[in-house]
Amino acid sequence: MQTGTPVRDLVTESIPNTLSLIGLALIPILVGTVLAALDVVHRRLDPVLHVLGLFPVVILAVMAAAWKVLTYSEFGGETAALLVGAAVLGLADGAFSGAITGTRSVASAERRQRYTGVGVLRGETELANILPNVFPAMAGQLRARTLHLFSGAVVVEVVLKIDGLGDLLWQAALLQDFGLVLPVATVFAVFSALLLLAQAIVEGGVAVWIRWSPAGSTAGGVA
Amino acid sequence: MIRRWPAMAVSGVLFAALIILAVLAPEFLSEPNLGLTEFGPGTVPPFGADDRGRPLWEFAAQGARVVALPSVLAGLLVGVFAAIGGLVRSMELRWADSLVQAFGEVVGALPRMVVVLIVALLMPRDWRGLFPLAVVWALLAAPGAMDEAAAVAERLGGARFVEALRAHGYSMWRIFVVHVVAYNLRPVIVRQAAEVTMQVVFLEISLSYLATANDDPSFTHADSVRSWADILHLGYRALAFEAPYMHALLLGLGLVALVAGTTIGISRAARAR
């Protein structure tokens, strides 16, 4: 970290890297969520997912850092570091496996409800029936998982030498630089607030959808 | 159906190994042996040596001592919180339920690692250690555990379940402690406690690794003490720079597996009937 650089510059330069890392890490999580909601992930894979989810982020990050050094150099391969870091974040600490098992448990509980069976008898799809009810819960889970990614990003950024907010926070904490820690923590808090807002908007949107589309479930089906 | 005794036996053995390692930990590392050219377990049994010829078992033992007590304490704390969460829902104390929810919203709104780093920064230098960070981690994990225990208590019937047991003439102790907590909330309480114990160990490894990799002092232990992160960093050098420390990587992964295995074993034993 350069001394004498304005804090604003340090923070604004770090934000895109962290957001890219989190955004890329969300891809496997979103894929897992969709696959679980569609019920296409076989339960026989659960032990594999469970073992995969046990790896802590620091272990996978160390492996990824070693691969990066072998393939590029200790201070090169920024894009590769970002991609491999996102893969680490998306898999470690049960991020991917939790997305699958968490979504599946919510979706399967709804699938067992009587209204779903009635909808299927009317010729509608299961997903169209359960989606309004599982969407708020899935939005809540996704928010929690994204927050978890921000937490893991600190480790990944430091180990893989990605110039992001997590790395900045770590360096500032080591130097006991309150002037830098506070703005970085504030940015994290703002991201968290935005995630809460997004969740509230999704929940509100679903409520409006349910309120204004009492016949929505008949789309393509028999009323 | 999971059988309780095998799971208990495996987790008991793994946990005992961790505790024995912590108890046997030397206060200071051995003197360096700079003349050593082979670092493997064959030369320095049982786990080999580091780049300065010091036995790696001492690193493993000191690391176990760093994590053992704080992680178990954090797990117990979360277990107590989870039990409280379940009991609050069983008693249908709505004000306490709202309080727990509000606490959870506030505590769960920030990434845990960010909070831990800020707490580490605010701690006086004399207080440096894993204990305060483990307690903070436990407090951050508590709302989730309470929420899950409360959901289990609700599925059980909540206040109606308690009322039914009262009608049988059971004492309050038997209702709440034996039936609600021990019989029904046990799996979730034990699993949450075990998971937080494991998370605190991984937190220590992460924080120490980040410090070790940059030659900085760790937030979690004194400079004279080594942790499992030092073993993993040697392993990283074996992977990245083909240094002769592959045994360190295997030991580091083995220690992580020891903790994960203990957690899985304890959780399964608690879930078994």
Order of helices and strands of chain B: HHHHHHHHH
CATH class of chain A: Mainly Alpha
Q: Per CATH, what is the topology of chain B?
A: MetI-like fold
Tell me the strand percentage band of chain A. Answer: under 5%
Query: What oligomeric state best describes the polypeptide chains here?
Result: heterodimer
Mean pLDDT of chain A: 88
What does this structure look like?
The complex is a heterodimer of chains A (223) and B (273). By secondary structure, chain A is mainly α. In chain A, helix 8 (165-174) packs antiparallel against helix 9. Chain A has one domain (10-218): MetI-like (MetI-like fold), CATH 1.10.3720. Residues 219-223 of chain A have low confidence and may be disordered. Chain A has helices at 7-37, 46-54, 57-71, 78-91, 95-111, 114-121, 126-159, 165-174, 178-212. Chain A is globular and about 70 Å long. In chain A, 78% of the residues lie in helices and 0% in strands. Chain A has 9 helices and no strands. Chain B is mainly alpha-helical. Chain B has one domain (48-271): MetI-like fold, CATH 1.10.3720.10. Chain B has helices at 4-23, 56-91, 94-107, 112-122, 130-156, 159-167, 172-213, 228-241, 246-271. Chain B is elongated, with a radius of gyration of 22 Å. The mean pLDDT of chain B is 90. The interface between A and B is medium-sized, with 38 and 32 residues.
